[in-house]
């Protein structure tokens, strides 16, 4: 019997794969019926082998994992860019188009001792006013008025009622200025004196004061361009250090996102009259674009890796 067992054991791998003749198969089956030791050996062979890590199966598993990752990242990327597109549209459509001064753009009426009413003409769809002391004479206060419309309002909000507002002074004489925000001089609309008999004196003259746009965004733009320039130089100098390059690319994408966001929000302008709006929108949009660029960068690298694995 011992002799037969060793022959059977030699045949078992072929038998398990159905690679023996019918006669041999019958012979092996017959033996297995009667010999428990060989039966056990046979069961061992038939058992499915667990996937061995670090062997042939590992690259395949990794590849399928990477393909999955790539698919998820591509979906996320599409979502980020759709949102970025919507935010950009919002930024462009909602950008203030300041209205130049024209006679009748603001009508001023007195409200007894309570203050004044400002009524804007139809071209104005939004406004802002700010009352502060005259820096040269604290017994006088100044009310700066800005008025604008947006592309959105021009296209979609026609035929609305004229905007109006009530301005209350603190009992001091007040000068009302219209701020055209186009580097031309501010226009003094009227002087209001609550204690005088004739409370409003219509003026309509300029007093040589110009409200200048803010330059800060221009400085940030220069800074972003500078950082990008440095990143490009470092990138060129680290041709052989792949990991360093990877990080330089990841960091360098932010100034790219910032510059693009600046151009979308403020156009190709160095200056702005609406700094807080522009700056918060640029930061928001740039973070959105940055995550999109990082994702795209990742997908690009994954694609390269998948190609390399496929070639192996
Ligand atoms: Zn046996």
Write out key terms for the chains shown:
single chain; about 300 residues; alpha+beta; 3 domains; 9 strands; binds zinc ion
Folded structure, characterized:
The structure is a single chain. The protein is an alpha+beta fold and 312 residues long. It folds into 3 domains: 45 residues, no CATH class; 135 residues, no CATH class; 109 residues, no CATH class. It has 8 helices and 9 strands. The strands form 2 sheets. Strands 1, 4, 5, 7, 8 and 9 form a 6-stranded mixed sheet that branches. The protein has a 3-stranded antiparallel sheet with strand order 2-3-6, with no helix packed on it. A hairpin with a 5-residue loop joins strand 2 and strand 3. Helix 7 runs antiparallel to helix 8. The protein is rod-shaped and about 130 Å long. The site of zinc ion has 6 residues, from helix 1 and helix 3.
Write the layout of secondary structure elements.
Layout: H1 2-16, H2 22-34, H3 36-46, H4 57-93, E1 97-98, E2 106-110, E3 116-120, E4 126-134, E5 137-149, H5 151-156, E6 164-167, E7 174-178, E8 187-192, E9 200-206, H6 216-237, H7 242-266, H8 275-311
Helix pairs in contact: 1-2, 1-3, 2-3, 4-8, 6-7, 7-8
Bound molecules: zinc ion (ZN).
Zinc ion (ZN) binds at residues 5, 8, 31, 35, 37-38.
């Amino acid at each position: 019997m011992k002799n037969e067992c060793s022959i059977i054991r030699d045949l078992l791998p072929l038998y398990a794969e159905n690679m023996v003749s019918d006669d041999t198969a019958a012979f092996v089956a017959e033996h297995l019926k009667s010999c428990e030791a060989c039966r056990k050996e046979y069961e061992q062979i038939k058992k499915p082998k667990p996937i061995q890590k670090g062997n042939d199966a590992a690259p395949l598993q990794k590849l399928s994992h990477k393909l999955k990752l790539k698919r998820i990242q591509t979906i996320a990327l599409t979502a980020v860019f759709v949102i970025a597109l919507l935010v950009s549209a919002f930024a462009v459509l909602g950008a203030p188009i300041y209205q130049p001064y024209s006679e009748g753009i603001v009508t001023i009426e007195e409200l007894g001792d309570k203050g004044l009413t400002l009524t804007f003409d139809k071209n104005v769809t939004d406004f802002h006013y700010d009352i502060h002391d005259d820096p040269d004479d604290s017994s006088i206060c100044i009310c700066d008025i800005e008025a604008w419309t947006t592309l959105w309002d021009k296209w979609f909000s026609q035929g609305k009622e004229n905007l109006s507002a009530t301005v209350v002074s603190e009992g001091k004489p007040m000068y009302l200025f219209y701020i055209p925000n186009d580097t031309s001089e501010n226009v003094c609309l009227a002087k209001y004196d609550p204690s005088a008999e004739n409370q409003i004196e219509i003026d309509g003259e300029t007093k040589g004061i110009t409200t200048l746009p803010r330059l800060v965004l221009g400085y940030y733009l220069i800074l972003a361009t500078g950082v990008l320039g440095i990143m490009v130089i470092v990138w060129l100098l680290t041709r052989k250090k792949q990991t360093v390059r990877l990080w330089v690319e990841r960091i360098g994408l932010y100034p790219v996102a910032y510059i693009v966001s600046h151009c979308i929000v403020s156009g190709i302008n160095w200056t702005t009259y609406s700094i807080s709006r522009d700056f918060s929108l640029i930061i928001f949009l740039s973070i959105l674009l940055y995550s999109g660029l990082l994702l795209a960068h990742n997908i690009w690298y994954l694609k390269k890796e998948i190609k390399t694995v496929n070639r192996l």
